C-alpha cells in the first residue's frame, strides 16, 4: 500500500513457506490445470442467490494479487440490487447497439460471430451479482493529495485473473463483459473520475440449459504458447 513520506525497506522472514517435492509440485500443477479446464464462460444464468459473504471472500482473494510498488490500484464494485443491475443493462445495451451497428468494424464483428454475442444482455439482470472492476489511474491520500500508481493495467489484470479463478474455485460461473465505452459505469457505481472501469463480471450459477460456443473449447496447444530457453540468435 502507498505510504506518504519516506518509508525504509524492512525485510521480514518469508511467511507461509511451501516445501514440496518435485513429484508433489507436478501433481499440484496438474491438479490445478485439471480444475481450471472445467472453467467455462456462460451467458445463461439462474437467479439462484449467492451469499454476499462468498463474493466478499472472492474479492479478498483478488486483493492478494501482486501489484506495481504494492499500490494495489484496483477497486471492485459488487452489485446485487435489481434496479441498479437494470440500469447497467440498459446503458450497456445502448452502447452495444452502436457497436453492432457498425462502430466495431467488419473485422471485429466477424471475429465475434463464432462466439454468438449480440446486443441483448439479459445476464446483466438475471445473474445475482455483477462485479465491476475499476483500475485506479492514480491514488489519493486521506488529505486528498495525488500519488502515482505503477503498472496499473498489468496489476489490475493480474487481480482480475485471481478473481476469475476464485469464482471458479467457489463453484460459480462468470461472464466477462466489456461494453465500449464504459464511462457510464463510473457514474452508476459512484466511483471517482480517476478510476477507469475495465470490465463487468456477471456472476452466479449456470442455468440448466446453459451452453458454450464450440469454438470456446478450442485452445492453443502448449507448443504455441510456450517457448523454453529460446535461442536469440536463431542458431
Automatic annotation (TrEMBL):
GO MF annotation terms: oxidoreductase activity
Keywords: Flavoprotein, FMN, Oxidoreductase
Pfam families: Nitroreductase
Domain Nitroreductase: residue ranges: 37-205
CDD domains, A to Z: iodotyrosine_dehalogenase (cd02144)
Organism: Pseudooceanicola atlanticus
Protein name as it appears in the record: Nitroreductase
